Records
---
Amino acid sequence: MLPLERQTRILDLMEVHETLLTQEIAEKVGVSEATIRRDLQGMAERGLLARTHGGAVRLQRSLTREPAFAAKSVRMPSEKGAIADYVAAHVTDGSTLIFDAGTTILEVARRLAGRPITAITLDLPAAQALAVGETEVLLLGGRVRSNSFSITGPWTEEQLRGLRADVFLMGAHAVDERGVSNAVIEEATVKRLAVDASARTLLLADHTKFGWRAMTQVCALDRVERVVSDRGSRKFGWLKESGVELSLV
């Protein structure tokens, strides 16, 4: 089993069990305790979990700071890929889309690269991925945030106020009954403006984003037309009861 596969499996286990011993994780994953200890140490350094004596503990469901891009990129790769496949299959050629920052949105950008669409991007990696073939890419100006590569600030906000798009593909740090929230104030402001600028907003988030609340509110779920997530989100009954259209892939 590759390290990425092991660590994804560990994170899945931590979603179910708040605390696990190294021995328990090793037995469930099917590798040695020494291997698990190395994985846990690296994952703790990337902010994916917390180490305890003899094991690991799930981080509390509240976000006060943004996970680094490198940490987010190893989480839920198959789920993010399935979400991206679904969204890309439902994008209409000729449409104008605003691409939020984030690793799930980046997967969508990779699948849409070359298609005859207009892509307004709030993320450097997404802009780079999209800029091929018939895709028209508009990279908004602003401050590029270190370690996340999102674009924020007054310049970005001013440009968004003058734009109109068909669809906003929005990512999220956290989603709960109150709506979508974000650990970074500047990003939350940009997201709100992108929602206002778009005829439709799709929220793309794997199940690990649900049940959390971050520091800054972005919008209520009634501002979102559809949530696209993986089947792990079925356990959040309030999501279905919210009335938002839901696509689980």
---
Amino acid sequence: MSPKSFASAMLAAVLLLLASQSLYVVNETERAIKLMFREVVDPDIKPGLHVKIPFVETVKKFDGRVLTLDIASARYLTKGNKFVIVDAFAKWRIKDVQVYYKATSGNRAEGSKLLTSLMNKGLRDEIASRTMHDVVSGERDALMTRLTELLNKETQKDLGIEVLDVRVKAIDLPEDLSKSVYDRMSAERAREAREHRSQGRELAEGIQADADRQKTVIEAQAYRDAERTRGEGDAEAARIYSAAYSKDPEFYSFTRSLKAYTETFGANDMILLKPDSDFFRYLKSPDGK
């Protein structure tokens, strides 16, 4: 290679190196800050192609998207001196790049650590001002909303971070307290069950007694009506018999004697009576004389 060609190649290499050190791109999903000798000269670089002084100015880039911080489950003390185990997470993003860089030195792990500490402090303060019932169900939404507001104010000022939302994934009780609560709930349900059974037995006995009373009344009324109907039938039958037999008393007496004969004598029966007994008067004479 000739000296002229070698010089041209070296010049091209130097120009490429200067260009690579002078030009940089900030993506839409990134936030960037420009430093000169570790001093901030541009606190918020917009997305696009930019130029910097090589070897003098440096550019720090950070993820500008919404990020998730999932903190480890921890024990917190409620207003009633009861412990609860809370598992929560937060949605956050960089709001002020310069403040974020100064607070974390551009280290995302350090930012997550500081935000975790503030979240734990906020959760501890908010849960300590509420009872267990409020934390578990009553004011759970209000707790998350207030914690988001308070945490967002503090992190924007101290960390340059905007907290968009804080959510509680789960609230559990410690094992010893869970057993105590379970035993208390079991005893309460058993007591309610006994009360319901007692009320059911009392109601059943009342229904049974009322049914027995109605049964007795109905049977008495039915017996009374049956006896009245039977008496009326017997009276009507006697009246009919009397009316029929009064038309021919002699014939009535004759049929009564025949009936007495058939009911008295069987195949091998024997009866001893005087021959002139009135019982045989229709056997002696058709007219019974």
---
Amino acid sequence: MPRSTPEHPLQSERRLQPIFVALASGLFGFVLALVSLQIMLEILHAQVESDLRTLAETIRNAPDGSTSSGTLSPMVSIAKSRTEVPRSTADICTERLVQWLDGQAQVSLAEARTALAGGVCRGAAVVVTPEGEGGAFTVLRALGGDDRSVRVEATTIRQSDITGIRFLLSNPAMMGLAISISLSAGLFGYFLRRSQYRAYVNIRQQAFTDELSGALRREQFLANVRQTVDRVHEMGGTVSLLAIDLDHFKSINDSFGHGAGDEVIRSCGRLLSAAVRDGDIVGRVGGEEFAILLPNLPKYIAAEVADRLRKQMASHAFCFDGRDLFVTMSTGVASLMSTDSIEALMDRADRRLYLAKAHGRNCVVWEDDDNHDY
């Protein structure tokens, strides 16, 4: 009975059309923007409430002659200073106060300085005047005095010159919000594309590996061997190759059917792949032929590895049609010499494989009279 063709990996995946991906991304971005905006407003509301309390404390009376400045929030700054001006006449008071305000960097407009000074010198306790730039304003207060002078305090509140990154670094809540948005977008993208990436990985793996045995296909195995051999030629070292053939494989197909032969190939591929190191390269190079490349192993140790694999294979019992079957394998071992090409290495391993067959099979040959290597 012919084997059914396995389902293509993409047929088992629920694929998303580009239009659905775009719609899902847009909807997620819209919801994320709304949630982020609401959280940002809550943070800013809390900051404004804190700023108002700080501002009220700042404008209160302090001991005479004190000068202070501070920062309400990363976006708002406050500057505060005091002086004493003569009260002989309103004009002289205004002139002196304007001169003092002219030297204060926080009061920049002449109209604002005149309005502030005139109000206080005429008897007002508090005068508030906008400066006309970015919503800044100055509060001028008369703190008391006597008939000859008056103590005055100027407090200016304006927006700070701050960049976005500085604002984030100085505001832990905003920084946490930015990190949360980034993580949410990253996780959404990951889950949206995870199934497609898995399908791609499966297709790529199937393109490189033999479906039945799980070992590399011949073309990919040879490509990996070429890369390893080139690296050994450049950097030095050694590498050994095992050429493996299952004994009397045709008789298994003839006696038990191709299904039994497939099971033997499948078990052999699993055995070889599980018994070697990470970095060793296992390939199925023919119907019942396998090859293993062993980097950094000299030939005599590679021969010990080959004999261990031979014994494991020979001890594995298969049961077909109620009968036990033991399958053996023959192996030829060769190691890379400094002048070798890939073809020469593989040819030497194949020659020793044929010698193993000629010597009765179920054995390992790693030396011969005509082809010496390390």
---
Amino acid sequence: MDNLNATAIPAAVLADALKKIRDARAALAPYLHPLTTEQRQELPKMGDKTLAFVTKMAGYAQNLPSLMPSYLDVTGLLIDAATSNDLLEVYQELDGFTLDVDSTRMIAGSEGYTASLIGYGALQGAAKTNQPGAQAAVAELAPRFARPTNAAKATKKAGNAPAA
């Protein structure tokens, strides 16, 4: 496999990017409403078709106020429709950016792990022939590959067992 991640990102580029992300987040913070996972699950969802419906309905509510019920908050509907539309472009840009960042992290992690396994194998071979420093390095790295003993598995199962 080719090494896709062959260029390190300069620290100054990362620092600048993080500053811009934090600045954008700070600029929008007064208008954002973080939700818990449970809250997100409970809300009705709005996709592309629903966004078009909401936007059109907001227009009708504004242009035909005499046909709207008195309990409908038309101003709130207009704000909700505008916010949904305005943030869509920001969301789409961030979603694509997040996917690219995560993909690059995934590639770098995969390539780093693959290379590390090769290096670890070399250290294991060197440890078998008593090369200086190899046994200490293998001893430090080996716990990553340790498998739980049967006693540890039994203890874990007993700890997770339902109460009687």
